[in-house]
Amino acid sequence: MPNITFSSPKMRKDVTVYAAAGDRTTILGVAKHHSVEIDCECEKGECGSCTVEVIHIGNKPPMAVHVTEKEKLTLLTSGKLKKSEFDELELLDLAPRYRLACQYMLLDEDIVVKF
Ligand code: FES
């Protein structure tokens, strides 16, 4: 069962929630369910307003490494990541630091979400 800790200067304190094992939901979905207000406009991975920093914690290597072409394009367009950074991350099979909360599907891994 993954722990997701939301952290933001917009919140009085960090909030840690537990996502049900096997839930196929996004960071944004869990945030909304727990009344954590992450900016979002399109919820389709197109506007970049829901960009968050994802920090993996715990002993397991990051699982949600895959980034769709749409998410990649939006992150590149918003300037959060450079193409050279993406190329290097893909080569090493590593997850980028910045992700779209509406596109990041939660897996069984503990993360901190900063926004
Ligand atoms: Fe637009 Fe996530 S809300 S990219």
From TrEMBL:
PROSITE patterns assigned: 2FE2S_FER_1 (PS00197), 2FE2S_FER_2 (PS51085)
CDD domains: fer2
Domain 2Fe-2S ferredoxin-type: 2-115
Protein name as annotated: 2Fe-2S iron-sulfur cluster binding domain-containing protein
Organism: Aromatoleum diolicum
